[in-house]
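Data availability (excerpt). The following record was deposited with the supplementary files.
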Amino acid sequence: MLRIEIIGNLGSDPEQRFTSAGVAQTTINVAVNSRRRGPDGENVERTDWFRARTMGAKAEYVQRFTKGQRVLVVGRLEIGEYTAKTTGERRTSYDIWADDVVNLSPREENGAARPAGGYSSAPAQTAGVGASTGRGEEATELEDLPF
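Predicted structure:
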């Protein structure tokens, strides 16, 4: 058996289907980024894509994820080949039948998961001079800061 563990970001929202028996199956596309030093000494970034599939209760859980979230996927790797429709090239596919999928993105205050990188899609709130910061204290002017 070929076991695999990957950490990456969702490249799209999960896709859910149901089997003829009514069991949920959710598919996610995970981008795993790596950086290596190339022959010229420069850093070269590479992105590998994996398709992970879950079934049953885990599929229902994974369906709540959103594009950009960081996830850990643990499961069985299946390597296959297919022919590209547009070019006719032979390509390799990497499919993971996931035993476990863990959301690694930090949670916001309202319970929603934050996209990878720690940025929220909500508009940023900035406090002006003398504005309340929400902690019962007043914002200070920039000249008063010790650095």
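Summary of structural features: The domain at 3-114 is CATH 2.40.50.140 (OB fold (Dihydrolipoamide Acetyltransferase, E2P)).
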